[in-house]
Amino acid sequence: MMQWQKLLTAGRFDPKKTHQSSDSQIRTESERDYDRIIFSAPFRNLQDKTQVFPLPEHDFVHTRLTHSLEVSSVGRTLGKSAGEYLLRKYPDLSQQGVQAAEIGAIVAAASLAHDIGNPPFGHAGETAISDFFRFHEYGQAWQKYVTPDQWEDLCHFEGNAQGFRMLVSQNNGLKLSYTTLAAFTKYPRLAHVFEADPQRRSQKKFGYYSDQVQDYGQLAQILGIENAPNGCYLRHPLAFLVEAADDICYSIIDLEDGCTLGLVSLEEVVELIAPILKERFDSDKLQTYTKQAQKLAILRAMAINQLIQEVVRAFEDNEEAMLAGEFDQALTSKIPSATALDVIAEVSVRKIYRSKLVLEKEAAGYQVLEGLLEVFSKALNHKFYQTDLYSGKDKSILRLLPEDFPLEGWDSSINPYPMLRFLMDFIAGMTDKYALNLYRRVKGISLPGA
């Protein structure tokens, strides 16, 4: 059974060291994590990455950056409330120097980073990258050179695993704390699992690539995170709160965005939110606000507040089962408002996520990412593996790669997986607009400066 004393072990992740103690500074470890994330280039790029509506033109529609900030705000409240409960239940944590505000800061930092690995064009971008390797001629060409585990990674691009890769990468220099990294990792398993357990929420997706197995293993050992029966790891309990903060925000705020863009009526939003607010819903008071934006804002604030309270109670009810590995479901599925959230999800899928506006721009995202992967993958393949096809066009294309891209030392006898990971780092790190502009240029649709 996992223990909070070890799950909250102080120190910063460094794959070259087995343990680092925390140094005393004005800021706590998790506060430093928050600052490092918010000032990092990958986080900054989220300002121009799709949340639901790609390349939004409306000022009030959310991007990945605004979504991440909101999830972090909700996560801080969830974490602090849960921390107060844990300190009452486990007085020894206070002697360890743990404070409720620090647990709130851990969840806030992990929530801030929760989408940092997402590629351009949202989930459509994840599918586009995966499908390139599964179906495209110049994606499939790499299969014979890599291991089965690595091929599973390539054919199943996952923003959560990409995010873990970015956070532990020495290039980004973040060196986050153990607890923030563990709370960030909602899916502590590889892509290639013989049989994932469908009853365990933490195995729905995967959270690290095959070349990060040792990294997560080191993290798990330090924090005392145990293995599930099929060889995957159990979740760190704070990861349930990060997931709940995300669930709360996208359920309510995507609905708000859908209404702002006219995809869902205000009357429908009221009808969907009222079951969450229950007796606190006051139709007459809502009518005192004259603007739609004001009505949406008050509904959003009240709904999020109610959901936070319900999630905290669900965490308290299931905390011991989390430590034992017996609870592995979304906390939002165990709250009184779970049915109301399911109804919101169904309406959002039907009227928002499958709206013409979203589908048209997702289709464009597929085209852009497949096109970029095609030209760069083909050029790399020709340079190192089918050298008789290497052309002047390939040389020009490769000059567009980042200066630190590893363009030396590859041939048909060397496993290209590390090189392909660098390529996906490059593509996944792009903003929507940069990806679109680069696609136009490499395809000859526009010229630089045009």
TrEMBL record:
What NCBIfam families does UniProt report for this protein, alphabetically? dGTP_triPase
Q: Which SMART domains match?
A: HDc
UniProt keyword Hydrolase present: yes
What organism, scientifically named, is this protein from?
Belliella kenyensis
This chain's protein is named: dGTP triphosphohydrolase
Q: One matching Pfam family, short form?
A: HD
User: Which UniProt keyword terms apply here?
Assistant: Hydrolase
HD/PDEase domain location: 60-260
| The keyword Translocase appears for this protein | no
Gene3D superfamilies hit by this protein = eoxyguanosinetriphosphate triphosphohydrolase domain-like, Hypothetical protein af1432, putative deoxyguanosinetriphosphate triphosphohydrolase like domain
> Which SUPFAM superfamilies does this one have?
HD-domain/PDEase-like (SSF109604)
Q: Which gene encodes it?
A: dgt
